[in-house]
Predict the 3D structure of the following.
Amino acid sequence: MQTHHVSLESHATGATIYIAGLLGETAAVEAEEIVRALAWTVLVVRIDLRAVVYIDPDSFVRVARSIRRWSDARSGRVMLQFPERSQPRHASRRFPFGHWFRAGARLAFEC
């Protein structure tokens, strides 16, 4: 049973690494190998995690470190795209009838 899928879409100066399913150790190793094999002409890498259902923190760190090494070595640019459910929500959606105000160094919510 396959629990993940890692694939690459690339052109002369850019690449996208797609990770789907579980971002565990095996998926991280595959992504790391793809990063190491990128052509020297690639200047921008996008990591698309929108199809990931679970992110193992250690595996994510492994992917992040490999892409950081690539970026440092080639002065490349990196973009990460996270799953929708992991995006921060705006306070206005959670508290539609109040508003935020700053009281000294603390934030408070007023209804």
